[in-house]
Amino acid sequence: MVQATPFLLVLFLALGAHGVSVKKVHAELFPLQCILTGTWANDLGSNMTIGTVKANGDFTGTYNTSVSATREKIKESPLLGSQHLPNMLKGQPTFGFTVHWNFSDSIAVFTGQCFVDDDGNEVLKTMWLLRTRADNLKNDWKATWVGYNTFTRLKEQ
Fold first, then answer.
1. CB within 8 A of 85, min separation 6: which ones?
2. Confidence of residue 155 (pLDDT cuts 50, 70, 90)
3. With the CA atoms of 11, 86, 59 and 76 taken in that order, what torsion angle do they form, in degrees rounded to the nearest 10?
4. Count of domains forming the chain
């Protein structure tokens, strides 16, 4: 890296002279890391906390939804997931997790990718499937729901 330093300095100076954003070039050469660990809130007001991602990509956490079709009291529910580690080297990993709802007879699975936007903010773009219990085979058609959520990191206080 020591040998690359003079080259990068000359590159940044040359690009800066031609009006190319040094920040943009730096982001392309050294992509910002998007880390799943932490507390996130989505566009519907739900929040989740993801614990440390283990060396094999596995993680656990909790999910507290702000929306539900049940009349039961909403309770914080456990989540279990995995991050695709080879993508971590590129800075914006794919991941998936399952939420076992503690207050209803349903399970949700999320899949998504962690991005860093142009302002350096981490964003989780997800798609989910929620399976509720059907009373019988005839009612199976209405037991699976699908949706999208965007999560942003909550700032620590």
1. 56, 57, 93
2. confident
3. 70
4. 1
